[in-house]
Amino acid sequence: MTPHDELxxxxxxxxxxxxxxRAARDEAGVLADAWAMLRRIGRRxxxxxxxxxxxxxxxDPQTDRRVKLTLAGALAYFVMPVDLMPDFLPLVxxxxxxAVIAAALAAVSRSIRPEHRxxxxxxLDGA
Length: 127
Hints:
Layout: H1 3-8, H2 14-25, H3 27-41, H4 48-59, H5 65-79, H6 95-108, H7 114-125
Helix pairs in contact: 2-3, 2-5, 3-4, 3-5, 4-5, 4-7, 5-6
């Protein structure tokens, strides 16, 4: 069993691996895409604050590179137009995205500082 299997309870899918490869090649582009998606649909997602806190952690210069790549991979999966459950499906469209983000957050939770969470909360509240 690989560390990924332990984290997710299953091997990574091809889409998840593609997202992580894209994140490793184009971290800035992935983060820009994630920011745009969060701004567009953020308040409607139950995990929006966590995804936004992950975004702020990923762009923080003090965040470890491994943590940044883990978060960028999860955020890349979030913004991918093709994934396990199409995002346009009512109620269930973002469940796979939420699961990937939750797994990434669990893996790097110690790196997401209170400042990242506060910044996410303020942004979603419109402050």
